Amino acid sequence: MPKLPPDDGDLSAGLDERGWSLLPALMDRGECEDLRALYGDETRFRSHVVMAQHGYGRGEYRYFSYPLPPLVERLRRRLYDLLLPTANRWRRALGQEEFPGTADEFWRACAAAGQARATPLLLKYGTGDYNRLHQDLYGEIVFPIQLAFLLSEPEEDFTGGEFVLTEQKPRMQSRPYVVPLRRGDAVAFAVNDRPGRGPGGYHRLKMRHGVGEVRSGERYTLGVILHDAA
């Protein structure tokens, strides 16, 4: 099981300061390989998306169906607990209602709003594939932080394929970030809006994420989104 550290301040500080935070070496090689192997088992998934058919880029991904694989289920629950304090601090700053205290309460709220489909997914990129900048919004309820786990080793399994983020401040040009990931690393990042402090108080900073072009090989990622889909 991935070893999630307690938030010693670095996680929340990174999220507050730039909208993302790197969590190194959360998965070992065996866990990454086990998750990659699931991609070929169609019975695990509720849908298969070929990005080029929708203008999303190139590559493909599959959304897990419920029940989730045990590792993904445990990981998702622990991530909710870990990220909840930051998520609720952001909600308060933006004048929004706080999220429930437990993951089960949160997912019941999603279901009551018509969002009952699983959102964790595996993504597969080959040579020449990429993912356009986007936001993973699936309904009215949006947990503001999600994670991506790199399951392949750069320079060994693939080249290129950098994880990228952009931040849009009001009336300013976008700021880009390139996040350095190795196999087993995760990046926690803002799904959509996050609070930024200005002279007049808090304002909304809009984030988008994507993947640069893979120059060679294959790149696999586990995406862990905490809100369910309509």
Automatic annotation (TrEMBL):
PROSITE patterns tied to this protein: FE2OG_OXY (PS51471)
Signal peptide interval: none
Segments forming domain Fe2OG dioxygenase: 116-229
GO molecular function: metal ion binding; oxidoreductase activity
Entry superkingdom: Bacteria
Keyword Metal-binding assigned: yes
Keywords: Iron, Metal-binding, Oxidoreductase
Record family assignment: Belongs to the iron/ascorbate-dependent oxidoreductase family.
Protein name: Proline hydroxylase
Source organism per UniProt: Pacificimonas flava
